[in-house]
Amino acid sequence: MTDATATQITVENVDKHYGTFHALKGIDLSIPKGQFVALVGPSGCGKSTLLRTLAGLEGITSGAITIEGENVTGVPPRKRDLAMVFQSYALYPHMNVRDNLTYALRLKGVPKAERAQRAEEVAATIGLENLLDRRPRELSGGQRQRVAMGRAIIRNPKAFLFDEPLSNLDASLRVRMRKEIRALHDRLNATSVYVTHDQIEAMTMADHVVVMRAGIIEQHGAPLDLYERPANRFVAGFIGSPAMNFVDGVIAEDGRHVRLGIRSNSTIAIDRTLEAGREVLVGLRPEHIALGDAQDASAAFTVGAVEPTGAVTYVFSDDEPELIAIADGISTLKRGDTVGFSIDPGLVHLFDPETEIAIP
Amino acid sequence: MQRIAHTIRDGVGFDVLLIAFALFYLFAFAGLPILYNVILSFQQVDMFSLGSLFHEITGWENYVAVFNDPLASRVFWNTIVFTAASVFFQFSIGFALALYFNQRFPGASWIRGLFLAGWVMPGLVVGVLWNWLLSGDFGVINWVLMSMGFIDEPIFWRSDTDYSLIAVILANVWYGVPFNMILLAVGLAAIPDDLYEAASLDGATTWQKFWTITLPMMRSTIGAVIALGIIFTLQQFDLFAAVTSGGPAGSSMVAQYWSWELSFRQFDFGRGAVIAVMMIVVVLGVAAIYVRSTRQETRL
Ligand SMILES: Nc1ncnc2c1ncn2[C@@H]1O[C@H](COP(=O)(O)OP(=O)(O)OP(=O)(O)O)[C@@H](O)[C@H]1O
Ligand SMILES: [Mg+2]
Questions:
Q1: Can you give the CATH number for the domain in which A194 is found?
Q2: Residue B27 lies in a domain
Q3: Are A146 and A17 found together in one domain?
Q4: Same domain for A166 and A313?
Q5: Is the residue at A124 inside a domain?
Q6: Are residues A81 and A166 in the same domain?
Q7: Residue A284 forms beta bridges with which residues?
């Protein structure tokens, strides 16, 4: 039914200035129909700005935006046929839930009976049946969130835009809504652009993750691609939790090992051959560090803090830079122990210390 | 005695004390004068009996006299026209300006602040100002209207019985617009931007946003502004004193000015009080509307 190759939204070389502040710098992005795209990045990187330019709520300084092949640059939001779920939900406080849901239909002149029926249908989809006559202020945060979702889906828009829709909910509800939103996306065959600063949310929900920093796209791709092949140090450190360890290193004489710049004399193998003596930045994911006996390992550290969580134990090195490794849930390690570690050569990330770009 | 001192320090008693104080204040400075005014309206009070506290009771005589006065129906209609026209134009112009300055453009908040300058002027000063503007021979208004070709010969605003009430209405509208604008601007600023953004994405035009978001969200503010406008307009005295003195021939006489004239020009305090009593009834009614709309505000 959906044409997987059809492009729903394209962003071409978009720049956005707020006065002298350069908020978006040459953004290029193409979003295929039916895809769930997450925009992630640290606070202030321009995620919301990019989303709002798609919606038409912000103008752009240069570049072009197209929706279903039509250039919509400069077209006002009401003619773009996109639906947006705001972080604040932006429900109309003077209307009850039914009127909030059907506001767009009312503007379009859909007859009252049909509106009421659509409201019932949508309410049933998202579990709001008993709340149709309530005002927003009589709803809980989670219920408001659902109304905001309902208001978006009732219109069958060309795409859904979400700006951190779950950030006002408590942790358990957030995990549940994450799944519901994704399920809804699949059921409606929708195209969604989802802004979040939570990389776990992005990784778990999206087909395609766009990592932004300071107004530029650092890297985009499938979640596991970003995890396995981060293009640079920033993406490597942003994706994954707990964050990747970074250690200075020098390539050993054989070109197949790297000496780590930590206190203990440690060397690990790498899966490629590099020029001996080259300085590199080594990235090690905590979950890839295999802890073992200090005697038979080529690398080791002294244990600092140990944080058991039940499922796993976070083991911190007593060193500068500090390393984090993940051990079994029940671990006998304690402060002051010396522990050996190893890592699969294929899982060692290497970056140029100057440019911070991944070394192929 | 000690128990009383105790509860005052511990809370409940203190609340009661505060309320009692406010009620006492209201009674002494609003209740008593109103009561005395009502009593006066049933008495025969003139220059000679003014000094004594108790006067001859005359029943409804003053009321009958006021209603039978040849000026009564004129004053009644003038008051309604004056109030309705003033409030209507103050509100519409104030709302239009508030909407305009709610747009974000450089200097918007500064210019909005400048409008307050008109409002802080004493009514008499505004009256004198409009005396000049409306003057028949060398008034600016006439000059503008004539040079734009709307009229051929000067209008004698203050002395022509057809125009005298309009003259005061003009001055009063000018005087009241800033107040309306500021209160309405505060109400507009309280509407979150994201509601308009959500409405834009839902397909609303600017006009539809105004009708479906702005107006309903402003309901309680509008109710309060109009109620206050009516009350202030019914209190407006200075402008009449400065511009037309209710004349010529009562053509711009309104209730509040007539009340003053009966009491302090003709020294018939009983009849002056009759008009004051009737105005108090109207103002209480309007005040009730005001209280209701501000109560809705807190519930939103
Ligand atoms: N109206 C504005 N005027 C000036 N600067 C703005 C405006 N809106 C946003 N900015 C700036 O643009 C940058 C990007 O803002 P944006 O809201 O897109 O960040 P974000 O990535 O969504 O961050 P967050 O995760 O905190 O929501 C920020 O540095 C912000 O200060
Ligand atoms: Mg944001």
A1: 3.40.50.300
A2: no
A3: yes
A4: no
A5: yes
A6: yes
A7: A245
Would you state the pLDDT for residue B11? Answer: 65
Domain count, chain A: 2
Q: Are residues A194 and A256 in the same domain?
A: no
Does the residue A219 lie in any domain? Answer: yes
* Residues A322 and A177 reside in one and the same domain: no
Q: ∠ at Cα A96 (A93, A99), nearest 5°?
A: 105
Contact at CB, A94 and B217, closer than 8 angstroms: yes
Q: Let me know if residue B212 belongs to a domain.
A: yes
Closest CA to A289 of A307, A305, A268: A268
Q: What per-residue confidence (pLDDT) applies to B7?
A: 67
How many whole angstroms separate alpha carbon A170 and alpha carbon B185? Answer: 36
Q: Record the tokens describing residue B199, joined without a space.
A: 């409405």
Does any domain span residue B218? yes
Chain B residue numbers with beta carbons less than 8 Å from the beta carbon of A78 are 200-205
Instruction: Give ∠ CA B247-B250-B254 in degrees, rounded to 5.
Output: 95
Residue A357 lies inside a defined structural domain of this protein: no
CA of B106 to the centre of ligand 1 (A): 21
**Which of A238, A258, A278 represents a domain boundary (last residue)?**
A238
Q: Domain with B116 in it: what CATH number?
A: 1.10.3720.10
Asked if A55 lies within 8 A of B201 by C-beta distance, the reply is yes
Domain assignment present for residue A356? The answer is no
- Chain length of chain B: 300
User: Do A26 and A14 contact (CB within 8 A), yes or no?
Assistant: yes
Distance, CA of B94 to CA of B183 (rounded, Å)? 9
Q: Which residues contact A46 (CB under 8 A, 6 or more apart)?
A: A16, A23, A24, A212, A214, A215
Both A207 and A252 in one domain: the answer is: no
Domain that residue A198 falls in: 4-238
B255-280 pLDDT tens trace: 888 888 888 888 888 888 888 888 89
Which of B191, B195, B192, B215 shows the shortest CA–CA distance to B204?
Answer: B195
Together in a domain, A112 and A22? yes
For residue A206, how many other CB atoms are within 10 A of its CB? 23
Pairwise CA distance, residues A57 & A78, whole Å = 10
| Residue B245 forms part of a structural domain | yes
pLDDT in tens, A87-139: 999 999 999 999 999 999 999 999 999 999 999 999 998 888 889 999 999 99
pLDDT greater than 60 at residue A1: no
* Structural domain of B279: 63-299
Chain A residues in contact with B212 by the CB 8 A cut-off are 92, 103, 107
User: Are B228 and B290 in contact, with CB atoms under 8 Å apart?
Assistant: yes
Q: How far apart are CA A257 and CA B292, in angstroms?
A: 80
B217 neighbourhood in chain A, CB within 8 Å: 93-94
Q: Would you say A169 and A177 are in contact if contact means Cβ atoms under 8 Å apart?
A: yes
> In whole angstroms, what separates CA B111 from the centre of its chain?
24
Is beta strand A279-284 parallel, antiparallel or unpaired with respect to A349-351? antiparallel
pLDDT the model gives residue A136: 93
Adjacent-strand bridge partners of A300:
A340
Calculate how far, in angstroms, residue A220's C-alpha sits from the geometric centre of ligand 1.
20
Is residue A215 domain-shared with residue A288, that is, in the same domain?
no
Which helix (H) or strand (E) covers residue A330, if one does? none
> What is the spatial distance between Cα B221 and Cα B229, in angstroms, rounded to a whole number?
12
Chain CA centroid to CA A94, Å: 34
Which residue in B192, B197, B213 is closest to A57 by CB distance?
B197
Tokens of A11: 């962003």
Element (H, E) at B52: none
Burial of A5 (0-12, 13-18, 19+ CB in 10 A): exposed
Neighbours of A45 (CB within 10 A): 22
pLDDT single digits (tens) B196-222: 999 999 999 999 999 999 999 998 889
